[in-house]
Structure formats: structure tokens, C-alpha cells
């Protein structure tokens, strides 16, 4: 049972490492946000297609008009006995009129309750965004990258992938003190998704399509 749980946690960590973009546009200077994210890779389940229900809660704060720091706790992994969190810095690289570029440098770590093993992954996201409408709404496209240091994965199998790249696209609707995010991501687009323990929904038999929803309460 322990090894089954460890395998499940490894899977959850690997997939939730492909979380949605936390911040594409930095918060205003001094602005704060409490966030919640839901979603994951799409799978075939009970005759329909659903995203794996991975969840996380977080906090962010604008350092100035171009930088935001944040941290998130992965609550689904916590339910299965693993403390998993990510933290980072979103930095506006370019902004003119309605178009902008940003990058996020972040890290994720895990500690399991059975063997107290610590693992960490550095990550870099890049995004291009464009505003539309009159309320600060925007859509974006980007690429997230994260590095796998470990030589082995579950059951002492060799880890074949050490640099994970996932393209994504999304949209954010902005209200006075709320933001709502919808993002789609193509996770591991260069890997065959069969055979596997679960039936992932990918594109052309490659990877998995991730679907994520986020809510931001601003104050």
C-alpha cells in the first residue's frame, strides 16, 4: 500500500508540476492576491473526459509595478501525505500599448511523510500577452520549462526526461477586485501517451491536454 501511495504521489507531483501560469501580468505595487487553482491533465473516465482534479491555494504580492512574488501550497498532494509547494517571481520584461512580455522564475519542492525525502525543481515560464476590452482583460500564450534533477523516477526506473517543456495559452477576465483565469496546456507534447496507467487525452497520441481554472481575490 505504501508503494502504491508513493507511486500516486510521484504521478501527482509530476503532473501538478505542470500547473497553470501563476501570474502572467504582475500585480500593482503593494497589491495582494489570494488565489485558488483547479485542474490538470485531461483523462478518459467513466465514458467522458475530465481534468484530473489537482488543487492549490496561494498568495501573491506586487513588489512594484513590474514584479510580483508568490507562493502556493498544493492541497491535493497534501491530502495524500506529501507537502508540495511552489514559489516564484513574475517579472514584466516589456510592455507597450496593449502588448507585453513577462517571465517567471520559480521553484517547486516536495517532502513525503513516509521517507522524508526532499526533492526540488527549478522552473522558468515565458509569456506574451495582449489586452482586450476596457477592463484589463487579456489573453496570452507561452511556454513553461522545468528541470528534473533526479536520475530515477518511481521504482528505481531511469528518468528519461530532464527538461520538460509545455506550451500553453489562456485568458484572464478582470473585475475590480477579482480575476478569473482559464488556461489550456499541452503537457509533454513530445511523449507518447500510451501505454499508461490512465488514458490521457492528448493530441495525435502525444502528451496530455491540461485544463485549468484559477480565481484571484485582489486587495
Compact description:
This protein is mainly beta.
From the N-terminal CA to the C-terminal CA, the straight-line distance is 44 Å
Sheet with most strands: 10 strands, antiparallel, barrel
Order of helices and strands: HEEEEHEEEEEEE
Please report the total strand number as a whole number.
11
The helix/strand class is: mainly beta
| Number of continuous helical runs | 2
As an assembly, this protein is single chain
CATH class: Mainly Beta
CATH architecture descriptor: Beta Barrel
Helix content: under 10%
Which segments are poorly predicted (pLDDT under 50) over 5 or more consecutive residues? Answer: 1-9
What's the shape? globular
CATH topology: Outer membrane phospholipase (ompla), Chain C
Strand fraction band? over 45%
For the CA atoms, what is the radius of gyration? 17 Å
Give the strand order, joined by hyphens, for the main sheet. Answer: 1-3-4-5-6-7-8-9-10-11
Q: Count the domains.
A: 1
User: Please, what is the average pLDDT?
Assistant: 86
Structure write-up:
Helix content is 9%, strand content 60%. By secondary structure, the protein is mostly beta strands. It has a single domain (2-218), classed as Outer membrane phospholipase (ompla), Chain C. It has a ten-stranded antiparallel beta barrel with strand order 1-3-4-5-6-7-8-9-10-11. The chain is globular. Residues 1-9 have low confidence and may be disordered.
Amino acid at each position: 500500500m505504501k508503494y502504491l501511495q508513493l507511486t500516486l504521489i510521484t504521478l501527482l507531483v509530476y503532473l501538478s508540476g505542470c500547473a497553470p501560469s501563476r501570474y502572467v501580468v504582475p500585480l500593482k505595487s503593494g497589491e495582494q492576491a489570494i488565489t485558488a487553482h483547479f485542474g490538470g491533465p485531461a483523462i478518459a473516465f467513466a465514458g467522458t473526459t475530465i481534468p484530473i482534479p489537482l488543487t492549490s491555494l496561494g498568495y501573491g504580492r506586487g513588489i512594484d509595478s513590474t514584479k510580483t512574488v508568490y507562493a502556493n501550497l498544493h492541497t491535493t498532494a497534501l491530502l495524500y501525505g506529501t507537502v508540495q509547494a511552489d514559489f516564484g517571481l513574475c517579472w514584466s520584461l516589456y510592455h507597450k500599448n496593449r502588448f507585453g512580455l513577462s517571465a517567471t522564475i520559480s521553484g517547486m519542492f516536495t517532502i513525503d511523510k513516509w521517507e522524508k525525502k526532499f526533492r526540488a525543481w527549478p522552473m522558468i515560464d515565458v509569456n506574451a500577452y495582449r489586452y482586450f476590452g476596457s477592463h484589463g482583460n487579456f489573453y496570452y500564450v507561452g511556454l513553461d520549462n522545468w528541470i528534473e534533477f533526479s536520475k530515477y523516477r518511481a521504482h528505481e526506473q531511469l528518468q528519461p526526461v530532464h527538461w520538460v517543456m509545455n506550451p500553453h495559452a489562456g485568458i484572464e477576465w478582470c473585475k475590480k477586485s477579482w480575476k478569473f483565469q482559464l488556461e489550456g496546456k499541452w503537457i509533454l507534447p513530445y511523449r507518447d501517451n500510451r501505454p499508461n496507467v490512465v488514458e490521457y487525452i492528448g493530441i495525435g497520441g502525444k502528451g496530455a491536454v491540461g485544463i485549468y481554472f484559477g480565481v484571484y481575490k485582489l486587495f
